[in-house]
Design a protein that fits this description.
This protein is α/β, with parallel strands linked by helices. It is built from 13 helices and 23 strands. The radius of gyration is 23 Å and the shape is globular.
Amino acid sequence: MAERFDFIAIGSGTAAQVAVHRMASAGKRCAVIDYRPYGGTCALRGCDPKKMMVSGEEALAAFRQMKGNGIKGAVSIDWGDLQAFKRSFTGPVPEKQQARYERKGVATMYVKARFVGPDRIEVDGNELRFSHALIATGATPRPLGINGEELLTHSDAFLELDALPDRIVFVGGGYIAAEFAHLAARAGAKVTIVQRGRILKAFDPDIVDWLMPSFDDLGIEIVDAEVSSVTDNGGGLTVHAGDRTIQAELAVHSAGRVPALGELDLEAGEVACDQTGMLLTPQLRSQSNANVFAAGDAAANGPPLTPVSSHDAKVVVENILEDSGRTPNYQGVPSALFTEPPAARVGMLESEACEAGLEFSVNAGSHPDWFSARRLNAQIYGHKVLIESGSDRILGAHLVGPDADELINIFGLAIRHGMTANDVRSTMFAYPTAASDAGYMVE
């Protein structure tokens, strides 16, 4: 007879963790299923380990900026030591997650799961029945449809490299390419990014223009072309892009991700999909199976960010326990690009505000002479803030330079809670800090 659960989560990342612990605290019998170590993308293969390694890059960049201004000597990145530092965080995560589940009485299973009915999941030949299930399997690199695609590695594997190759090509020019290119180049690799058109299309063009000298200074080559194929040349790889052939020891897929749904047999679970992913109601419930929900990157409903995964999970739990009809609120969710220096954005791009027919003013400028940049001898520091005419609401904020990844949260708070530019201007921030610049950015 099939074992029965009130709630089953497929996946063990942020969305699954939040949902399972809340459901277990409500007295529900829960299970979590993942064929990989517990922790998910953010803790094991994404945000956290990436930022741990970026810490080494930040230290090196700070040293080089201040060299000759009170700092002397030689500093370099030791890739092996940096990996060990990162693994001091990621290594204990699965065991900690397992222990937390055990304390809550949650059943844990390290296997692949697939649907065998609208209320049934099969794991390792055993059938489980559920009242509600959550698909929180994250995302996977999107298929590119090119010859030799199987020769590309991906961001998960890049973060686990024991040694850094001398020559690396990134196929695609989004977040992953920019962040890992900066890190690899500072660690001594020769790096090329291949992207048709402008890189970092999710960011304001002026912000990207101000950031570009950092790529030039690191010797990162950006090729405006589309990759047509990748071939094994015996001693490495050849990436074919337009009329270029680029030699590399490692080629990394950095051209976007899609929901990781391929092995779940959603059709058997009566979970309808289209070419983009699952068909969901505004409450993150399957349109065709009311017992199944999705959250985070697997749902692909909001920005592919860890706070969104957590938020989605809370929405799902509330809709299961209270049938509240709650829908996610993605207003004012900031995103950060962890290059060095970092860039960040929240709210509307200038082009989006224009398309929406809004009337607004733009406060923008490049300010390497501001104190926040000068004290670090940083050459890149800029902002663009969109302020709606009449209401004085902040519509969008776009930053680049020291502490941009922290300062953006002030603008995220303002946008999410409907604060005005004057609210920010009239706030007294600690000085001298990056936050104290916020008031000048909305004048």
